[in-house]
């Protein structure tokens, strides 16, 4: 689906009042959800006494309570009550070979048994992993491993400022670049500013410039008004929240040109797109070369303590050198043998099994099939679009509400509540997705997964009144 059609369909969805299920139908599915997940509910009640809010995972479905998972294999996950789900969460995108991919797991188990998990010192695997990343990503010449995508984004901003000797960072609204103080701004919803800023000082945003997605005039003005002080632009190259705010076809090229004009650095946050959109990342897909590339969980295929900042040698050199000449980054478990070996072997297996292409081909099929199904209910306006194996399904469009509207907050909350109710239904029926908006595919999703997925969505549609 092309950009103009996506935006037109978003506009249509936002023009339609969200339609929830009738009270009796919703009560039925809530009861089903609770009955099927009794152990999860018991665990949640215990968790609330020792964990704030009773849940630690931003990816969890929290309404009416989070489901506790027990195990995963291929494209399936099973919860502690034994319920099976078709999984499209994929740990938030890193799983593309499939859960518990035995060849990869066997390599890691052998490393733990023969070498131990970590020493805090260099191992051969960090060099091997870095070389694999360099081999595949055209804008990357050097790699510095860290412990998460959040840390990698923090380092990227520090590198940009040190290299350019400038202060300002342009952040595109609605994007997610981790949860460091300076990046929790216009989070999720463009122009929402410090909506999530509880506990963060105003000074943390002093050098952040917020620009709306695909606002070409606004971007140029941000550069022009800060002509001598823009260190860089940080962006998710398929659009904020990994495509929830889709990128205009000319947006990345325009950012590249303006960064060149004003001697600023372009930072691609490829935590989701790296090795998922393309083995060469979004930079290869769009043929736009960033100066700095941020990588996260996907390079470890779900193994923990995983992140990296990468880029041109000339830029990355600020991570080296003597006292006062380099930026300071740290992390005792960064580049540990488990994570870097997982990175090295996962990339090898992705290539060997053509994982990215298989996951993308399935996503294309599922996207078309879901759109065909949704076309039978044009009164709802539901639609799906995908960037390869990164799928977005739009039911109420709560991420895209114009925050300048007088009733914006009410709209967001109402539309989010209805989307949450849909997710209760799909979860009760055996579908696992992200935040009621996203689905990630892996190379092991098959015809059975597609059929089950369509059956679940058909049941939801049939429960929503027509007209």
Question: What can you see in these coordinates?
Answer:
The protein has 15 helices and 15 strands. It has a seven-stranded mixed beta sheet with strand order 4-11-10-9-7-5-6, sandwiched between helices. The protein starts with a helix and ends with a helix. The mean pLDDT is 96. The chain is α/β, with parallel strands linked by helices. β2 and β3 form a beta hairpin. α5 runs parallel beside α12. The radius of gyration is 22 Å and the shape is globular.
- Report helical residue fraction: 40-55%
Strand order of the largest sheet: 4-11-10-9-7-5-6
SSE-based structural type: alpha/beta
Distance between the termini: 26 Å
Question: For the CA atoms, what is the radius of gyration?
Answer: 22 Å
**Average of per-residue pLDDT values:** 96
For the secondary structure, the number of strands is 15
- Strand content of the residues, in percent? 5-15%
Q: Please report the number of helical segments.
A: 15
As residue ranges, the low-confidence spans are none
Sketch the topology as an H/E string, one letter per element. Answer: HHHEEEHHEHEEHEHEHEHEEHHHEEHEEH
* Main sheet summary: 7 strands, mixed
Q: Write down the overall geometry.
A: globular
Please sum up the structure shown.
The chain is α/β, with parallel strands linked by helices and 467 residues long. It is 40% helix and 14% strand.
SSE map:
Layout: H1 3-15, H2 23-36, H3 38-47, E1 69-73, E2 76-79, E3 84-87, H4 102-115, H5 124-136, E4 142-146, H6 149-164, E5 168-172, E6 208-211, H7 216-225, E7 230-235, H8 240-243, E8 245-246, H9 251-261, E9 265-269, H10 281-286, E10 292-295, E11 307-311, H11 313-316, H12 337-352, H13 355-374, E12 383-387, E13 390-394, H14 408-428, E14 431-432, E15 438-440, H15 447-463
Parallel strand pairs: 3-14, 5-6, 5-7, 7-9, 9-10
Antiparallel strand pairs: 1-2, 2-3, 4-11, 10-11, 12-13, 13-15
């Amino acid at each position: 689906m092309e950009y103009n059609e996506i935006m037109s369909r978003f506009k249509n969805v936002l023009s339609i009042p969200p339609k929830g299920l009738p009270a009796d139908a919703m009560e039925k599915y809530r009861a089903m959800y609770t009955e099927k997940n009794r152990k999860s509910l018991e665990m949640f009640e215990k968790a609330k006494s020792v964990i704030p809010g009773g849940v630690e995972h931003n990816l969890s479905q929290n309404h009416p309570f989070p489901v506790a998972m027990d195990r995963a294999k291929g494209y399936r996950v099973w919860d502690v009550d034994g319920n099976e789900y078709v999984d499209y969460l994929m740990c938030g995108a890193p799983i593309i070979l499939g859960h518990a991919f035995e060849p990869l797991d066997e390599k890691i188990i052998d490393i733990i048994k023969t070498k131990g998990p970590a020493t805090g010192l260099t191992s051969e695997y960090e060099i091997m992993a870095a070389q694999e990343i360099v081999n595949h990503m055209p804008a990357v010449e050097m790699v510095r491993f860290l412990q998460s995508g959040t840390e990698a984004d923090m380092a990227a901003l520090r590198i940009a400022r040190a290299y350019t000797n400038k202060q300002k960072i342009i952040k595109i609204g609605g994007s997610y670049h981790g949860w460091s103080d300076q990046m929790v701004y216009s989070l999720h919803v463009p122009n929402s500013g410090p909506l999530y800023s509880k506990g963060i000082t105003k000074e943390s945003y002093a050098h952040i410039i917020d620009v709306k997605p695909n606002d070409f005039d606004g971007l140029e003005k941000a550069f022009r008004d800060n002509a001598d002080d823009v260190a860089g632009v940080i962006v998710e190259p398929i659009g904020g929240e990994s495509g929830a705010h889709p990128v205009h076809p000319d947006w990345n090229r325009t950012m590249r040109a303006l960064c060149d004009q004003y001697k600023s650095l372009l930072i691609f946050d490829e935590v989701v797109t790296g090795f998922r959109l393309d083995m060469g990342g979004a930079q290869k897909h769009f043929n736009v070369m960033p100066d700095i590339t941020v990588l996260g969980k996907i390079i470890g295929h779900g193994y923990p303590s995983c992140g990296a900042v990468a880029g041109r040698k000339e830029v990355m050199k600020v991570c080296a050198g003597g006292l006062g000449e380099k930026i300071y980054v740290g992390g005792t478990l960064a580049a540990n043998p488990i994570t870097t070996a997982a990175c090295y072997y996962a990339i090898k297996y992705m290539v060997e099994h053509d994982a990215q292409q298989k996951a993308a081909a399935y996503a294309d099929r599922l996207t078309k099939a879901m759109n065909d199904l949704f076309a039978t209910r044009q009164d709802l306006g539901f639609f799906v679009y995908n960037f390869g194996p990164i799928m977005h399904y739009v039911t109420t469009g709560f991420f895209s509400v114009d925050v300048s509207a007088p009733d914006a907050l009410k709209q967001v909350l109402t539309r989010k509540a209805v989307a949450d109710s849909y997710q209760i239904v799909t979860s009760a029926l055996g579908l696992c997705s992200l935040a009621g908006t996203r689905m990630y595919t892996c190379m092991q999703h098959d015809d059975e997964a597609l059929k089950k997925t369509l059956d679940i969505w058909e049941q939801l549609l049939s429960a929503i009144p027509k007209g």
